[in-house]
């Protein structure tokens, strides 16, 4: 049985989720099973519309408000935190049940950074994940205590981005 490795894709640049989705498609294309999860993101996207049609890919994602965490009221933040913790619990249970070839934890690093998911619980999961499951963690901000458990660490740096000029995420490109 092969041992699944751990990937971290982080940084300020565009492409972390895109890289994870590319790996998910590659895995499914080789008849591998994929559990694709997203923290904090709730809006529909083009990539999820396609991924949801692929029989080897199971999707679990956030529900509730699509506001950035910095825009939440204290009450909304607490509710969002409870939702994210419940999501994290569901993902862990589903992963141990399905034992997928690949688990994508999209935006888990930012969920950890904003203290919605406990870093220690992520480390515990990584230590006890199904042996064959490859795991990808993405997010803007790294969690340094998780880094020692990774086999791949890729920093994706922004050098220039349209958002800095006030151009919002565009349909078919960023969403």
TrEMBL record:
The keyword Transferase applies. It comes from the Bacteria. PANTHER family: CORRINOID ADENOSYLTRANSFERASE. The keyword Transferase applies. Transmembrane segments: none annotated. It holds the Pfam family CobA_CobO_BtuR. GO terms for molecular function: ATP binding; corrinoid adenosyltransferase activity. It comes from Megasphaera hutchinsoni. This is Putative cob(I)yrinic acid a,c-diamide adenosyltransferase. GO terms for biological process: cobalamin biosynthetic process. Keywords: Transferase.
